[in-house]
Amino acid sequence: MTPKVTVLLAVQNGEPYVRQAVQSVLDQTFSDFELLVVDDASTDTTAEIIEALDDARVRLLRNERNLGQVPSLNRGLREARGLYIARLDADDASQPRRLARQVEVLDADARVGLVGTWMEAIDERGRRLGYLRKHLDDYVDFVYHTLIMRVYVSHPSAMYRRRPVLDLGGYDEATGPAEDKDLWRKLLLARFEARIVPEPLVLYRLHDQQLSQTRAAYQREVDGASQDRFLAQLTPEAPVTAVRLLLAGDARAWDHEPHASLHGVELVLAGARHRLSLDEDEARRLGERVALRLLEVADSRPWHPSARVVAAYTMAHVPTDRRAAARRRHVTAFVVAPAVSWMRQSVRFTADLPGIAALRARARQSPLARRLYGKAIGNE
């Protein structure tokens, strides 16, 4: 009988945690699923752990040689039987109601193609480190956060419709380890919406050996290239790299001519309205949010000549009822931003002190800690 959900787990040498990950799936309150494990030529006991399970819902595929995570995921997509695909990594775990809650969202609205959840970050021993709580309320929300490169659906928490993803070609193997973000952009272009279940239904483990931790610089590179392709799909005439850097608040944005970058933003917004079939209200709300985002970026370095150009542009485009507050915030930024910059410089100066050094070391090991560290020293 065809299951409604395929839980797809690709693993290579996952012995330390894979048993807990698999058990968390078998303990789900939602029972209409299969667990498809793609073992990427592990040299430890991962395959033996899976083979020892006495559960008909578990299927194991073994790669004859190491292919890498993204090709293994694509193999799993082709072999999956479920209507929906739920992703899970071998070092993470799902709370018992995860599948049930995500299936509810997908069943309720055919326009929704992607559903994430809140996540609880834990360490190697399972101790709580914090929560990742984000929201996606509607399609405009999804588009806006994608434009500014805040992709809130984390891969280990994702559930999506299998057929549309296969129709899009599955994961682009050239975009690993940012294959999830690349796929979400393609789903957005296909006019699918995204949601996040506001419950911490995934335990996200931070540890030294995570795949995404060892290739952080390369991940940023391929993610940037994917975003450029996404923006070019909206409007090929725009200077997409300059627009990407500006909307993302990247300091390298100020290396580009601001008037050209702002014109590029206008082209992207016009392209989004046409390419994504936004109605008048959706286009208006997206434009207003982008204008406020540009002011936020300008306020991070208000003294910079290019930031002044961006701020002046923004003041003419923010909603009238929010313009006075925007001006007050911009004036305040001339006082606050130098203090923040000084603080970040101080953090850099003291980065080798024991406590800061520990945080910096942790930042190299996990996306969550890297984001926290990046905010502290101004890399994000």
Number of domains: 2
Helix content: 40-55%
By CATH, the topology of the largest domain is Spore Coat Polysaccharide Biosynthesis Protein SpsA, Chain A
Quick one: overall form?
A: elongated
Rg result: 22 Å
This entry's quaternary arrangement is single chain
Order of helices and strands: EHEHEHEEHEEHEHHEHHHHHHHH
Mean pLDDT over all positions: 89
In CATH, what is the class of the largest domain? Answer: Alpha Beta
Beta-strand share of residues: 15-25%
Number of strands: 9
Largest sheet: 9 strands, mixed
Q: Which structural class should the secondary elements be placed in?
A: alpha/beta
Low-confidence stretches: 347-360, 363-367, 370-380
* CATH homologous superfamily descriptor of the largest domain: Spore Coat Polysaccharide Biosynthesis Protein SpsA, Chain A
Q: What's the architecture of the largest domain in CATH terms?
A: Alpha-Beta Complex
Q: Distance N terminus to C terminus? A: 48 Å
Quickly count the helices: 15
